[in-house]
User: Fold this.
Amino acid sequence: MEKKIKISKEDAKKAMLKMLETKRVVLSYAKGEISQEELTKKGIKLANPLAL
Amino acid sequence: MPIHLHYNFVFDTLTNSYIFATKNSILYRILFVADSTLETAARKEIPNVFQLVINKESNEIEPYDPKVSRTVEIIIEHFFQNIQNSVLYICDNEEEKAETRYKIFDNWYKKSEFKKYVSKINNIIEVDNIVMYTSFLIRNENPDFNELVEIYMQIGKSLNRK
Assistant:
């Protein structure tokens, strides 16, 4: 029998806020407001679909 | 819609982004970012989850251009060549027209060729008075389909529970 997945409200909130922060930082990068080094410092890794 | 109706695009290896320009000289940049949303929530390692970020490098209102959606569609199709890849997309209400963008993205999906083999699940989530319009795209053949969809849905249920 498959185990039911339970996610706490705290973990869900942390995950969603992190997702939103990532999106905002990447948009700043795409607009040229921050560098790739700053992106890396924030732990954000861009993927190259050609290499996936 | 004829399959050739799209813009030429390039993958810029310096910025790790897809780039294309429309007939109105509006530049679009499409990025895929390694995303830890599902693994943060489920407290376990979950590879091959990415966030899709679309940046239109102009605030001008562009007339409807079906070639834009077709181009984004081709890029996403390419990304889903790996059946284990899945994608999160988010718009939030701090952006102007977040709901409109979310609906546009939904229309793109509904008209896309890849909807035959990629499922799209939506979750509108409110956290700290921020409304997040999110979608999760996953290939139907993904071996972890049920688990990943369940985690994504549980995030919404957990946060939207009063």
Notes: Residues 30 and 54 of chain B are 5 Å apart (CA to CA).
